[in-house]
């Protein structure tokens, strides 16, 4: 803390924050100012400690020594949880009626917790935070090594969390909580902002999707706890489950609505909608841009399979396709949304410009190189938001020597 | 210093409530009026010696509707920077509170199965408010608008001799780097961003300060510490190794590998060879071998497995030595042209079995099963190459 000055702050401040809050309240300062001051002062007193604890390398260890990284250091994680909880408790005590949990629930909280009273919401959030902290400590103690007995430990933790929630909520409240927070609902929410359904439709879709939930999304701990063979098997089964689910959804919604739903579920389509909304453009512009993306993928495949074109002609055609794509997206989306989208789409467009054939699926995008005459095609590069793609013609060179 | 005090009393408490009503800004949620006694937070009694006198509040007539004047007033009143920043930022947010409240109301009307504020329209509107808030704050606070007090606290802890202006300037440079990194899409762009960050901080610090800063915070230093693992070095050795690595990375950073042509790869490999020799000269042959072992990802995983199984740390060394021995003998078998493929295959199979027996003896059966996943993947290569390749029968 800086030394007290001789100004007004010196009269207000105290090492005991309760005294400071009392003086502010007695002085009639508005709630937002009291909150801002309390939170800033707590950040000042606790912030460096928390930031230091959560650094990957421990700042208290001499710089020439290596300690365990934060993710694998259960003691540091436990201390971080303890200090965070201490700060949060002190904030609640200091702010009293101004604390978050005493304010009216936000729209997001209503989405998750329905009409539960604010006090009960606060208890749920504390339960979830406690179990999140316990999960994190258990994962840290694993040090990146999964042993068979770990599965049971995490299952036990899940059961105990469930039991704590069941003890707090009535059966009806728990059922409503499950519906609002289920993995299926979490997964579908982004799509349902663009694909509108009634409550009846939502409940019917939720019921249809529920049996596939664990086959499509294993949950944060389950995948981590699988052996490599189990993961390979899961990924293969996941693709089958997705196909079955798609067929069931198509049957339920009909072809046209299923196509709309699939589009609304696509992450890049949702991003397009955000860029378009930011520029106050019509949502139809996002659909037009998304359809262009689909046509580019189809055209790249047509070029690749065109028997009348030589290899070099195909490469040139794909290069032209990619370059034209940039101009077309700018025309459709305008300068603002166009530049924003082209930044995101740069990697797959560049792949096409370099002679790659692009396909899109629910996991993102994929490019394959052209098949050279009398040789095997270049391996496909699975991509998504972050994978790198090399030259489509599969050029290689001497291997880069590794360090010691 | 005359100590000012707050005026309390039943008659004034009503006036305070009226004043609070008049000066309170609208908020996004209902906020009850503050209690009118000096008891402060709900349920807690606070003894405040200043509450007994009848003096006027030291901060009367705060210009709560004018952030720029509020800033001047708070500074003049001696509020420390982290508080005047937070209070002014909160006041600016208050000005946008009605718009946020309108968005919140729109989000509240959405059914629970829709995405709320993640809805593209609402998110775009939210983003617009955030940008306007940032601009408004920037106009009042300038470079201090985005100050991260926790980062500054950490810098104060690490560099207690630095004056506050230096702390603030370095933290602003760190923040600018984080914002540049959000736009980075390729490793080469990350390299360029790190170079800019280095140059910005170098302008703020003396050469010695810069050295100490980078030894503690740079990516190169973090990478070196990760590579060292359990291998202990002295402070001077670390400084030397860091200087060598930094000089190498200036021209041959791993972030630039993707853009190398074959000639570039050859040049990099040659430079890496030279770096390895320099490290060997620094540490000596014996310690260099231990350094190489520490940097081996298999050894690092094995060390974590051994720690997880609560076995002595030397178990990892034992397993590594066994790995080196088995791999050396397997390579010799494969290179021996005097052996028939059947004999070679049989000997490799026996070698693989020997490795399994030795590893199981120190780890136990379940530990060995985990070892094959964590650090022991090299066993698969010995075992798989022990299996004779199928040769298609030749059709006469």
Q: Short description, anyone?
A:
Chain A has helices spanning 8-12, 17-26, 31-54, 74-95, 107-113, 118-142, 148-168, 171-181, 183-192, 199-209, 213-216, 220-225, 228-253, 255-265, 267-278, 283-305, 311-353, and strands at 356-361, 364-369, 381-382.
Using brief descriptors, characterize the structure shown:
heterodimer, A: 404 residues, mainly alpha, 3-stranded antiparallel sheet, 3 strands, 67% helix, disordered N terminus, disordered C terminus, B: 396 residues, 68% helix, elongated
Taking pLDDT < 50 over at least 5 consecutive residues as the criterion, the unreliable ranges of chain A are: 1-7, 381-404
Question: Largest interface, per-chain counts?
Answer: A-B, 108 and 131 residues
The percent of residues in helical segments of chain A reads: 55-70%
If strands are numbered along the chain, what order do they take across the biggest sheet of chain A?
A: 1-2-3
Q: Gyration radius of chain B, to the nearest Å?
A: 33 Å
Write the H/E string of chain A, N to C.
HHHHHHHHHHHHHHHHHEEE
Q: In total, how many beta strands of chain B?
A: 0
What does this protein structure show overall?
The complex is a heterodimer of chains A (404) and B (396). Chain A is mostly helical. In chain A, 67% of the residues lie in helices and 3% in strands. Chain A contains 17 helices and 3 strands. Chain A has helices at 8-12, 17-26, 31-54, 74-95, 107-113, 118-142, 148-168, 171-181, 183-192, 199-209, 213-216, 220-225, 228-253, 255-265, 267-278, 283-305, 311-353, and strands at 356-361, 364-369, 381-382. A 3-stranded antiparallel beta sheet of chain A has the order 1-2-3. In chain A, α3 (31-54) packs antiparallel against α4 (74-95) and α4 packs antiparallel against α6. Residues 1-7 and 381-404 of chain A have low confidence and may be disordered. With 396 residues, chain B is mostly helical. Chain B starts with 9 loop residues before the first helix and ends in a 10-residue tail after the last helix. Classes of the chains: A mainly alpha (404), B mainly alpha (396). At the A-B interface, α1, α2, α3, α4 and α5 of A face α1, α3, α4, α5 and α9 of B.
């Amino acid at each position: 803390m800086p030394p007290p000055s001789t100004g007004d702050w010196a009269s207000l401040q105290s090492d005991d924050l309760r005294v400071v809050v009392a003086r502010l309240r007695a002085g009639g300062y508005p709630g937002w100012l009291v909150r801002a001051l309390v939170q800033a002062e707590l950040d000042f007193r606790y912030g460096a400690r928390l930031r230091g604890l959560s650094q990957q390398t421990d700042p208290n260890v001499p710089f020439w020594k290596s300690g365990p990284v934060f993710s694998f250091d259960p003691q540091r994680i436990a201390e971080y949880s303890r200090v965070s909880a201490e700060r949060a408790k002190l904030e609640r005590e200091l702010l009293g009626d101004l604390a978050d949990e005493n304010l009216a629930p936000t729209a997001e909280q209503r989405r998750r917790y329905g009409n539960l009273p604010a006090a009960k919401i606060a208890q749920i959030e504390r339960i979830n935070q406690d179990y999140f902290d316990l999960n994190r400590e258990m994962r840290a103690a694993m040090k990146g090594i999964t042993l068979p007995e770990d599965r049971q430990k995490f299952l036990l933790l899940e059961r105990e969390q469930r039991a704590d929630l069941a003890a707090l909520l009535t059966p009806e409240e728990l059922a409503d909580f499950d519906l609002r927070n289920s993995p299926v609902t979490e997964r579908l929410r982004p799509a349902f902002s663009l694909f509108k359904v009634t409550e009846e439709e939502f409940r019917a879709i939720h019921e249809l999707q529920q049996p596939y939930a664990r086959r499509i999304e294993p949950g944060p701990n389950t995948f981590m706890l699988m052996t490599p063979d189990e993961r390979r098997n899961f990924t293969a089964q996941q693709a089958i489950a997705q196909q079955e689910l798609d067929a069931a959804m198509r049957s339920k919604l009909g072809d046209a609505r299923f196509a709309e739903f699939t589009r609304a579920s696509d992450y890049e389509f949702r991003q397009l909608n955000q860029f378009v909304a930011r520029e106050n453009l019509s949502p139809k512009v996002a659909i037009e841009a998304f359809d262009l993306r689909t046509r580019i993928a189809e055209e790249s495949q047509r070029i690749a399979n065109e028997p009348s074109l030589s290899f070099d002609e195909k490469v040139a055609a794909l290069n032209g396709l990619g370059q034209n794509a940039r101009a077309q997206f700018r025309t459709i989306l305008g300068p603002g949304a166009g530049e924003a989208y082209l930044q995101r789409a740069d990697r797959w467009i560049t792949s096409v410009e370099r002679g790659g054939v692009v396909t899109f699926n629910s996991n993102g995008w994929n490019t394959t190189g052209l098949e050279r005459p009398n040789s095997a095609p270049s391996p496909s590069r699975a991509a998504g938001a972050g994978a790198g793609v090399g030259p489509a013609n599969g050029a290689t060179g001497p291997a880069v020597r590794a360090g010691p | 210093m005359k100590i000012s005090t707050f005026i309390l009393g039943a008659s004034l408490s009503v006036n305070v409530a009226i004043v609070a009503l008049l000066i309170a800004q609208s908020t996004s949620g209902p906020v009850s009026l503050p209690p009118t006694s000096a008891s402060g937070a709900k349920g807690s009694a606070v003894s405040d010696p200043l509450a007994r006198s009848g003096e006027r509040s030291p901060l009367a007539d705060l210009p709560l509707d004018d952030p720029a004047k509020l800033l001047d007033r708070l500074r003049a009143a001696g509020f420390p920077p982290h508080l005047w920043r937070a209070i002014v930022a909160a006041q600016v947010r208050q000005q946008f509170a009605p718009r946020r409240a309108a968005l919140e109301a729109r989000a509240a009307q959405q059914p629970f199965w829709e995405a709320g504020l993640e809805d593209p329209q609402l998110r775009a509107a939210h983003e617009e408010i955030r940008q306007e808030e940032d601009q408004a704050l920037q106009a009042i606070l300038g470079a201090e608008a985005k100050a991260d007090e926790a980062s500054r606290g950490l810098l104060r802890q690490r560099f207690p001799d630095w004056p506050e202006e230096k702390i603030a300037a370095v933290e602003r440079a760190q923040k600018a780097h984080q914002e540049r990194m959000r736009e980075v899409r390729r490793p080469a762009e990350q390299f360029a961003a790190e170079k800019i960050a280095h140059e910005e901080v170098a302008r703020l610090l003396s050469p010695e300060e810069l050295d100490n800063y980078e030894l503690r915070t740079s990516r190169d230093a973090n990478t070196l510490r990760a590579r060292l693992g359990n291998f202990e070095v002295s402070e001077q050795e670390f400084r030397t190794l860091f200087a060598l690595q930094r000089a190498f990375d200036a021209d041959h950073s791993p972030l630039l590998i993707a853009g190398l042509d074959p000639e570039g790869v050859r040049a990099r490999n040659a430079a890496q060879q030279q770096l390895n020799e320099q490290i060997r000269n620094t540490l000596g042959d014996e310690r260099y071998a231990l350094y190489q072992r520490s940097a081996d990802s298999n050894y690092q995983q094995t060390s974590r497995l051994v720690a997880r199984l609560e076995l002595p740390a030397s178990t990892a060394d034992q397993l590594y030595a066994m790995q080196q021995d088995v791999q050396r003998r397997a390579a010799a078998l494969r290179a021996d042209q005097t052996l028939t493929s059947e004999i070679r295959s049989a000997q490799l199979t026996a070698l693989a079995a020997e490795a399994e027996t030795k590893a199981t003896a120190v780890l136990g059966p379940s530990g060995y099963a985990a070892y094959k996943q964590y650090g022991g993947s090299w066993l698969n290569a010995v075992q798989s190459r022990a299996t004779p390749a199928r040769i298609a029968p030749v059709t006469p």
